[in-house]
Amino acid sequence: MKIGKHQISYRITQRGVHILHDASLTSLFNESPISGVKNLVNELKEAFYTAHGRELAVHHDSLVLEIWGHYYFEKYYKYFRWMIPSERLKKRFDMATQEFDCGEKQVDNNRWIWDLLRPTLPLAQIFLKDQIQII
Predict the structure, then answer these.
(1) What's the whole-model pTM score?
(2) Is the model's pLDDT at 6 over the cut of 70?
(3) Average pLDDT, the chain
(4) Among 73, 74, 71, 58, CA closest to 108
(5) Which of 24, 29, 67, 122 is the most buried (most CB within 10 A)?
(6) pLDDT digits over 82-108, tens only?
(7) Is the distance from CB of 69 to CB of 29 less than 8 angstroms?
(8) Do 95 and 8 meet the contact criterion of CB atoms below 8 Å apart?
């Protein structure tokens, strides 16, 4: 899927979307963390509809926040990974930072967190700035 000049790798399952965290996604975040990610969410939801003939039961703003949450968690996690005593937890976090699994509440056990945080989207945007606006 092309978002601006960025080729984003993803896959769709019965109840979610999964975004590969690679150089292209990082480039999108560096360039357009607000408009680029919002556009990515629009395209993911459209691809889900095309694949399944129904809407992904995740609110747009909730999905934007979840993608931001995964991305920025990973940005800091790599510096503090050594402090986590549990190898099992490290492996869990390592997997979560390689591919962002975003699903409906039936399969995504932290969907409620992103839904709860949804009203904070305008506040979260204050801390981000697009270098280039992707429409």
Answers:
(1) 0.88
(2) yes
(3) 92
(4) 58
(5) 67
(6) 899 999 988 888 877 789 999 999 999
(7) no
(8) no
